[in-house]
Amino acid sequence: NGAQERGRIMMKYADLVEQHAEELTLLESLDAGKPRMATRAVDLGTSVRSLRYFAGAADKIHGETLKMSRQFQGHTLREPIGVAGLIIPWNFPAIMFFSKVAPALAAGCTMVVKPAEQTPLSALYFAHLAKQAGVPDGVINVITGFGPTAGAAIASHMDVDMVSFTGSTSVGRLVMEASARSNLKPVSLELGGKSPLIVFDDADVDMAVGLAISANFFNKGEACVAASRVYLQEGIYDGFVKKLAQRMESWVVGDPFDPRVNQGPQVDKVQCERVLSYIDHGKREGATVLTGGKPCGQSGYYIEPTVFTDVKDDMIIAKEEIFGPVMCLMKFRTVEEAIARANDTRYGLAAGVVTKDIDVANRMTRSIRAGVVWVNCYFAMDSDCPFGGRKMSGFGKDDGMHALDKFLAVKSVVTPVYDSPW
Ligand code: ADP
Predict the structure, then answer these.
(1) Contact 352/215 with Cβ under 8 angstroms?
(2) pLDDT on residue 422
(3) CATH annotation of 3-191+389-414
């Protein structure tokens, strides 16, 4: 059974990634500036879980029996779509690699994977482990290179049958254009965000502050789901701000190999300068700096975790994706206002709601236009939880059984039931 064999190889691949987690963590921390402790648990842990989850799915991909009119019977086949082009960003190199490679393998596709030019190391190691696990030659092809050359070659290639892309909204647009100009390959895009975290008066302040910190400063804010718009109901605002300022006093920025460190350097000079220019915009537009607001350290691309208060919805820092450790605090009064302001964005990736009121929570989860709404939690992602946005955050799902769909082509097969009418 080919599908079962694929699953077996993927399980072996997962074991190998787990066995080499120490080296892989070092590579990932070195390449992306991630604190080592968290990288081992989060980035490598998630990668292994992804492989095991989709390994189990490999032999459970089947079609339907169709109830056609009397004369015919039909069924559908879900076949591998062919060659998958997988273009990956630099913020979670390992997680992104397996959130695409694992379902593509389970579906039976071959693939060309392009890691980001900033962070190619773990992908190369994963390719090496794939060989050891018994993945046949030619199935996983890792190609390093720059976006406009190597990435664009995949997006415009006539023999690539689909592209799954994670990255910026502007490059997502280029990928879709390249597909339209070449062979109209289907694309799946996981793009930027400007996600809201909405904290109601009845929330536990400590918990809400903790969520806001991790939702903005985890992975130095280099996360597409970062909750960079934090809306606080007016009754909780002052207490929240006070507690947040206190909590940030013990936040440590520095060498990602030091176990006490919470936040490493930004991925490179370009990103660091981009984030600092957003911080300058915030200051110039009249927002108040509560914490941080400048680079730190003697060398390297370190930025102080920055919290702005008095942010207005039309400020650039409240509208554009910053992709760095910058949190914007805004005040609101009613549920209706929170819904309207949360949805007043081009993006629709994620949202967080903090409340003990089940009615408010239900209303928010139904009203927010986003791919995921987290209630009293944030960043709660897992292999079986579909992930992917709406609006200009893209379309198509990574993770969960839905992730398989983009790697499969549905074929209908029809035969006469009795004698052929022809
Ligand atoms: P960022 O702007 O955050 O660096 P990008 O969207 O540029 O993120 O990068 C995500 C991935 O897309 C990377 O692997 C990058 O090399 C690739 N990429 C960049 N430009 C293109 C392009 N024109 N076509 C295809 N892939 C690209």
Answers:
(1) yes
(2) 73
(3) 3.40.605.10
Cβ-based neighbours of 60, under 8 Å, separated by 6 or more: none
Mutate to test the pocket of ligand 1, among 171, 176, 220, 278 (most ligand atoms within 8 A of CB): 171
Any residues with CB less than 8 A from the CB of 383 and at least 6 apart, and which? 46, 49, 50, 52, 53, 54, 102, 399, 400
Q: 268: part of which helix (H) or strand (E)?
A: none
Going by alpha carbons, the residue nearest to atom 24 of ligand 1 is: 152
Q: Which amino acid is at 379?
A: F
Q: Is 225 in the pocket of ligand 1 (CB under 6 A)?
A: no
Contact 223 CB / ligand 1 (< 6 Å)? no
Phi, psi dihedrals of residue 295, rounded to the nearest 5°: -70, 165
Are 303 and 325 within 8 A, CB to CB? yes
Q: In the structure, what pLDDT confidence band is assigned to residue 1 with cuts at 50, 70 and 90?
A: low
Give the SS3 label for residue 241. Answer: helix
pTM of the model: 0.96
The separation between CA 119 and the C-alpha centre of its own chain, rounded to angstroms, equals: 16
> Residue 249 catalytic?
no
Q: Which amino acid is at 72?
A: F
323 CA closest ligand 1 atom index: 3
> Whose structure tokens read 């957003």?
278
Nearest-angstrom CA–CA distance, 83 and 104: 9
CATH of domain 196-375: 3.40.309.10
Cα 304 to Cα 190: distance, rounded to the nearest angstrom: 28
What residues does each domain of the chain span? Answer: 3-191+389-414, 196-375
